[in-house]
Structure to design on (130 residues):
């Protein structure tokens, strides 16, 4: 039954390629082989984006953190796993030198932030710097 539903919703070309397969599992495995590399490439691009991203001095910390959170969500959606502590560390490492005191306080106080809390704290720190 699953095979019938899968074939019914495929394009004509894909349906023709998969019609001779005996089970839905075979079809899924073949589809993964055909399209899985696109997922891998997208995940790789998201990882590259997040690791190369640095905030420019004077730009909006809120916009920067939201963009970083967007990349982290993309990675998670594509099956990548980055634990919460590492996510915070990645964002902190992407900040400019003007946030050095904030990073030092973070390390000294051994704080555990969620991404939302980190965003709020960074915005407050930025307001104090101004």
């Amino acid at each position: 039954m699953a095979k019938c539903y899968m074939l019914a919703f495929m394009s004509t070309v894909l349906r023709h390629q998969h019609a001779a397969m005996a089970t839905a599992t075979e079809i899924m495995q073949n589809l993964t082989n055909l399209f899985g590399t696109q997922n891998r490439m997208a995940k790789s691009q998201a990882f590259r984006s997040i690791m190369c991203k640095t905030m420019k001095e004077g730009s909006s910390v809120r916009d920067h953190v939201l963009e970083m959170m967007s990349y982290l969500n993309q990675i998670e959606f594509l099956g990548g796993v980055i634990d919460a502590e590492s996510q915070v560390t990645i964002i902190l490492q992407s900040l400019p030198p003007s946030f050095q005191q904030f990073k030092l306080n973070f390390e000294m106080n051994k704080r555990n932030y969620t991404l939302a809390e980190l965003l709020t704290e960074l915005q407050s720190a930025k307001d104090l710097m101004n």
About this structure: The CA atoms of residues 63 and 120 lie 12 Å apart. Residues 53-129 form one domain. Helices lie at 2-8, 12-18, 24-52, 61-77, 84-93, 100-109, 115-129.
